[in-house]
Amino acid sequence: MTQPLPRFVYIKRLASGKTAFYWHVTKHYRLRGCTIPDEPLGTSYAAAYGEDGGGGRTAGPNRSFDEWRRALAGESVEGVAKFGTVDWLFREYKLSVAYQERVSERTRGDYGRIMLLLADWRTKKGDRIGDRPVKAVTPVAADKLYALIAEGRPRQGEKLIALCRRAWNVVHRLHPDQFDRDVPNPWLGVTKKRRVMATKPAATREEVYAFAEAAIAAGTPEAAGAAVICFEFLQRPENVLAGYVRWADYRSQAAPDAIRIEYHKTGANVLHPLVDPKDGSPLYPDAEAILASVPKRGIPLVLKARRDGTSEPYTAMQMAKIVRKVCARAGLSKSLSTWRHDGT
Asked: Could you tell me if 229 and 297 lie in one domain?
């Protein structure tokens, strides 16, 4: 090969004839206690190392190795989470496949706030929890941290327990030596405080269509279309805004009397009839009248127009702002999240 190979890398010729790349810590460092796991890098040089051999998939394990070596020497680097600390654990969790594949974009912002809340929490000594070693968070410490954070904000406390349980499990699997051998996950068994769960009432048909008409009158028919799709076809607002409902799936040539709906959470792809098969009468005349007012700006049914003539998806905050304005003008108190039949 003519391309440079980064450190800790070896190549292997597969039976198929392709060249596979692997990141592998040498025995010298294993004997010194390095527990960073070996990692297959695939068969693409660019994906494994970057075009110049200085990035790609090797960047993560090489960074972890550098931090481990600095920690071994008792060094610290400003702006970089020290290997084995709570800050480091959260960073490793966010880089993990478990986080990248299982945590939705909608949830990541909330996760980030919870992580920062815990990491920036000051102890009685004045130091940050994020700067402490992972092993310093014992079951007793976890109980105390939950009690302090949940005081006056029980929902935040519940999110903290769920997130930390998961993060500790994921990173422990990759770096077991950084955790207490007897109690690797101190967040298991933390008892949550009892509280009465508030029920979010679902919007009625009258409220949904009153909003839709008000949104059209206000010049925001995209919000009207999102509302009726959520209500009639049980879509979550974030999925509508993300483009999972497309014009190509609405009365397409293959199914002119139906709309195809993908339920993102379950993966189900359902063809909903729009007409009665017995007499051909429309099943959703009010909804289709609203959808007829939504401009076709691209493949997704709901898109925001840009000043340069192109279009882009709405963010949740942008749509929420529109919803608040329309509801205030129309005297409604409902939010987009209540426009599914179960109100979730």
From this structure: yes
pLDDT tens by residue, 32-48: 777 777 888 888 877 77
Task: Find the domain containing 144 and state its range.
Answer: 81-195
Q: What is the pTM of this model?
A: 0.55
Q: Residue 78 above 70 pLDDT? A: no
Q: What pLDDT does 290 receive?
A: 95
Do 159 and 258 lie in one domain? The reply is: no
310 vs 103, 105, 219, 241, CA distance in Å? 30, 23, 18, 16
Instruction: Give domain status of residue 296, yes or no.
Output: yes
On whether both 243 and 162 belong to a single domain, the answer is no
Write down the pLDDT at residue 334. Answer: 61
Within-domain flag for 154? yes
- Determine the pLDDT at residue 55: 65
Q: Are residues 6 and 103 in the same domain?
A: no
Domain CATH for 240: 1.10.443.10
